[in-house]
Amino acid sequence: MGQGLAGWAAKEGQGLIVPDVRADPRFDPEANQRTGIEITAAACVPIRARGIVIGVVEAVNPPDGSFDVN
Length: 70
Known about the structure:
Blueprint: H1 4-12, E1 16-18, H2 30-35, E2 42-49, E3 52-60
Antiparallel strand pairs: 1-2, 2-3
């Protein structure tokens, strides 16, 4: 909880879109080693049950390089 982008989303209870994870201090560079992929962009959304955050959905590396917020 609180570590990396997904941990931040869980702790704060807020979603976030990060177009360049290398420029965001919340990003944990060890995530690349754990996943075995080079994460460049990410979007995270907390999942709630009865008002309590129980998890986070995280999408990474959209095919066109960025997440469309429209």
